[in-house]
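Notes, p. 3: input format for complexes.
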Amino acid sequence: MVLLTGSKKIKTAVFISGTGSNLKSLINFSKLKNSPISIKLIISNNDKAKGLIFAKRYKIKKKIFNFKRNILVDRKLILLLKRNNICLICLAGFMKILSKNFIKKFKGKILNIHPSLLPKYKGLNTHERALKNKDKYSGCTVHFVNSKLDSGKIILQKKVIIKKNDTSKTLAKRILMQEHKLYPKAILKIFNL
Ligand code: GRF
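Output follows (193 residues plus 5-O-phosphono-beta-D-ribofuranosylamine):
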């Protein structure tokens, strides 16, 4: 296995909107010797996002953007990412849709984690929909981001069995635990590690 030293690691930005448990797992992963990434920036649309505490805790630069003002945000955000030599963007519970222009600029470099077995249940309320349809399984997916919502090339998926008395909350919790393992695995996979 290739060992990457600090300076050779791929400079990564993580985009969050909420709790940031996937961010935390990515930070832990980035600190491992065999991890190809180093997290240099945390971006959020929400200055109240709980996950922003990890910026302070791990001394990672953070920046809040108002994603409503699309063109302006695009310019500023792209500049910030370029200035920090960001080569990989991990969306982790990021609830805003990125512009086509932004996605084009970072083509093939944006990943997302989604709490369903895509192509099933794109968008929101995935667990509720899986339960309503009485599915036997749900799970999570890491995929490349393209201009269509939750539709880019799939990198890895993990199935999670739906139990008889699952609620969307219990199912979400079990899937989230798998998300924390799946995201690092998917990153290793794209770098052939
Ligand atoms: C995760 O289930 C993710 O797949 C979804 O939102 C949740 C975010 O959780 N898009 P966290 O903020 O990483 O804890």
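DSSP finds six helices and seven strands in the chain.
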